[in-house]
Design brief:
alpha/beta, 7 helices, about 30% helix, binds adenosine-5'-triphosphate, binds magnesium ion, Cell division ATP-binding protein FtsE, cell cycle, membrane
């Protein structure tokens, strides 16, 4: 599903590499946490996956396809396979909850009919059916994050990538968000979650990849951090 082969990324000459010879394999249907101190290379890993940036050395495969071989025109199709959830919510303030989620379908040319059918299902999945006509400023942080998740899964991505999805939320709301991600995973979507939230990682007992100063130092199957917090 996702494979990194000896991937190195350096942003600038004479600076330490942001990723150092990282090799890993994430299978279809896995739920993986990616942890590490600030600057360890987590967001770099995600940007490489989305092909927002390219490796300095090494190769990245998604579904056995080397994404370096994608033409500019093909990159949007790669990104459609991936849903993304970032800490800064980025909802459209002048659109309702329904419209925010619908927008992700409109831009890839889905019909009115498909949109009217699917958006309520996605909002139900994240427990937000009762907020469908509200606007972002009328929602709590946790509710806004649910909308972002609904939007990220609306086009059935095979991989859902989350960079600090619980970053601004209190512990209880964070658990609710992680439970939603777990349910999405149960339905077959591969999930990669970048987080600093040690409590959640400890409770979930999922695979944990630890980056230290750009190197993948620990790959633990049962949820242990590879570094001291
Ligand atoms: N566009 C860039 N140009 C130059 N250096 C960069 C760039 N983006 C990231 N870096 C450097 O690469 C290293 C890894 O950064 P990255 O953003 O991947 O870390 P991170 O693990 O996501 O950190 P955080 O937890 O703070 O989000 C850091 O040393 C950072 O300064
Ligand atoms: Mg980051």
């Amino acid at each position: 599903m996702i494979e990194f082969k000896n991937v190195t990324k350096s942003y600038e000459k004479n600076k330490s590499d942001a990723l150092k010879n990282v090799s890993l394999f994430i299978d279809k249907g896995e739920f993986v946490f990616l942890v590490g101190r600030s600057g360890a290379g987590k967001s770099t890993f995600i940007k490489l996956l989305l092909r927002e940036i390219e490796p300095t050395q090494g190769s990245i495969f998604i579904n056995n396809y080397n994404i370096a071989n994608l033409s500019k025109r093909e990159i949007p199709f790669l990104r459609r396979k991936m849903g993304v959830v970032f800490q800064d919510f980025r909802l459209l303030e002048n659109k309702s909850v329904f419209e925010n989620v619908a927008y992700a379908m409109e831009i890839i040319g889905k019909s009115e009919k498909q949109i009217r059918k699917r958006v309520p299902l996605a909002l139900d999945m994240v427990g937000l059916s009762h907020r469908i006509n509200h606007y972002p400023h009328e929602l709590s942080g946790g509710e806004q994050q649910r909308v972002v998740i609904a939007r990220a899964i609306i086009n059935n991505p095979t991989i859902l990538i989350c960079d600090e999805p619980t970053g601004n939320l209190d512990p209880e709301t964070s658990y609710e968000i992680i439970s939603i991600l777990e349910e999405i995973n149960r339905r077959g979507t591969t999930i990669v979650v970048v987080t600093h939230d040690r409590e959640i990682v400890d409770v979930m007992k999922k695979r944990v990849l630890t980056l230290e100063d750009g190197a993948l130092t620990v790959d633990d199957a049962i949820g242990r951090y590879g570094y001291e917090v």
